């Protein structure tokens, strides 16, 4: 749950990757 939630709640993370 935490993993998918991070991507949905923190779209900025995708830019970091």
Radius of gyration: 7 Å
Net shape: globular
- Stretches where pLDDT is under 50 for at least 5 consecutive residues are none
Termini distance? Answer: 20 Å
| SS strand fraction | under 5%
How many helix segments?
Answer: 2
Structural class: mainly alpha
Average pLDDT over all residues: 62
Model description:
With 17 residues, the chain is mainly α. The protein is 76% helix and 0% strand.
Q: Main attributes?
A:
single chain; 17 residues; mainly alpha; 2 helices
Short structural description:
This protein is mainly α and 17 residues long. The protein has helices at residues 2-9, 12-16. Helices cover 76% and strands 0% of the residues.
What order do the helices and strands come in, and which of them pair?
Layout: H1 2-9, H2 12-16
């Amino acid at each position: 749950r935490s993993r998918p939630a991070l991507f949905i709640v923190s779209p900025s993370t995708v830019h970091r990757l």
